[in-house]
Amino acid sequence: MSEARLWHTVDDYFTERLLGDDEALAAALRDSDAAGLPPIAVSPLQGKLLQLLARLQGARRVLEIGTLGGYSTIWLGRALPAGGRLVTLEYDPRHAEVAVRNLARAGLAERVEVRVGPALESLPKLADEQPPPFDLVFVDADKANNPHYVEWALRLTAVGSLIVLDNVVRGGRVADPGNTDPDVVGTRAALEMFGTHPRLDATAVQTVGAKDHDGFALARVVS
Length: 223
Description:
It is built from eight helices and seven strands; from the N terminus they run αααβαβαβαβαβαββ.
């Protein structure tokens, strides 16, 4: 068995024993695939990790940058208590339409707001509304703009908030100094912010599994 195949097999093993079947989540993936959305949603185990992080945070307000078909949004939205709120930003109107349907089927239409348009246009508008600080921000959009998303996350959070940055390993490309792909460069810049910003205390975790070799970076806002 190849190394990558082994990663997938172990992921399947954990998923079967720890998560079980969930029709709303399965339907979200099916409908996203049928609509031609790219198959880049978080894995089931990663979705559950996000949900547990939100619950450990006691999160009442969550911001997601990058909705896609709403799969990760469902995981995060289910972590919220009564009265909780999730705002998710999606660039592509077609993706947003799929996400809205998936969220409604999951019973989250009243708890989740999908805002459509470039995130770097939506974020200033959101800030102008002066919302209460978000307890958790999940960044999973175009990686070239990751440093800007981290900057906005800092403006929209408070001490104790958690910022989670997805896809920071990209098969090891992040550590290849010769790789100048804009997504890799953007991720490196965001990680540099995580490591040096005086308001952040951060780490990163490599993962292998259904998403192959990748990982998350996590930062707690400390001041």
